[in-house]
Structures are given as structure tokens and as C-alpha cells.
Amino acid sequence: MLKQKIQKILNDQVNKEYYSSNLYLSMASWAENKGLEGVANWLYAQVEEERMHMLKFLKFINERGGKAIVPAIKQPPMEFKDVYNLFDEVLKHEEYITASINEIVAECFKEKDFSTHNWVQFFVTEQIEEESSVRQIIDKLNLLGKEKNNLYLFDKDIMSLRTTGATTNQ
Ligand code: OFO
Q: Is the CB of 133 under 6 A from ligand 1?
């Protein structure tokens, strides 16, 4: 049986993962409207991955005898200055999620819930991969500079930078 404090922090994470999925959906839609098909596809893939994370948390809570809560999701931003700003926002968001996962780890330790502590390590690894993959994209964008032709090439190439997350297909 999950302790109340652990159930609460895991349900908060359900909310955050669901919001991540919606945030990337909003970004994907923005990119699609700008004709950035590659960027949109990269983001649509993230939408699915984050939804999977949300489901993973939700199911884990229920499997451990807790009660998962399906949250109301706040509206994500719909406008982004440009693709550089968009990926800065993605990185900022992933860093926020990493901090949140670390809080779960710390709480599990405090509450001596070593099963959840063990289970959540998967997300610790996942966040390392996700942050590194976004930093790689930002580095590439910085290398290319802001010329339109380069952006076109970047858009064609971005899917090849996609690392399959630790959670893919799980
Ligand atoms: Fe961005 O990954 Fe979920 O946790």
C-alpha cells in the first residue's frame, strides 16, 4: 500500500507528465503551422512519449493499491518567438521535470519506500537522456545560425537526432 505522501507526489507527477504531453502538442501544432514539418514530427513523437510516462505513473499508483487521479490540465502556451525560443522552452521544461523526479526520489528515501524508489530510477535515466537530446538540438541550432536555408536543413534533419527514450515501447 502506498503511503499518502508518496501517492500525492506520484499523482502530482501524473499531472506534470500529462501537461508535458499537452505542452509539446501545442508546440507541434505551432511548428506545423510554420511549415516546420520535421520539428513538428519530433514534437509529436514527444507528445506520445510523455503520454506514456503519464500512463506509467498512473498505472503504478493503482498497482500499488493507491488511487490515481486523472487531472484537469492547464492550457499550455500557444505562441513561440521562433524555433530557437521553442527549444529553449523545451529544455527549461525538461529541467523542471528532472527536478520534480529528483523530489520523488528524495521523498521515497525519506518515507523509506524503496519499491517506489527503485521503480522511479527508470525516470532518472530517462531525464538524463531527454535533457541531453534537447541540448544536442540546441547546439546544432546554434552551429547553424539563423539563416533561413540552414533552418530548412535543420528541419529536414531533426528526426535523425531523435534518440529513442528509455521509456519508448514500455
Ligand atoms: Fe520529459 O520525460 Fe516525462 O518524465
A: no
CA-nearest of 89, 64, 90 to 10 is: 64
17 lines ligand 1 (CB under 6 A): yes
pLDDT of residue 149: 84
Q: Is residue 167 part of a domain?
A: no
What's the whole-model pTM score?
0.92
What is the mean pLDDT for each group of 10 consecutive residues in the chain (170 residues)? 96 98 98 97 97 98 97 96 97 98 98 98 97 96 87 89 55
Q: Which of 20, 46, 134 to mutate to test the pocket of ligand 1 (most atoms within 8 A of CB)?
A: 20
Tell me, what CATH number does 148's domain have?
A: 1.20.1260.10
Q: What pLDDT score was predicted for residue 170?
A: 39
CA dist 134 and 92 (Å) reads 10
- Measured CA to CA, the distance from residue 132 to residue 95 in angstroms comes to 11
Q: Which domain holds residue 60?
A: 4-161
The answer to whether position 169 is within a domain reads no
Helices (H), 34-145: 37-63, 83-110, 114-144
Is the minimum distance from the CB of 56 to ligand 1 under 6 angstroms? no
Q: How many domains does the chain have?
A: 1
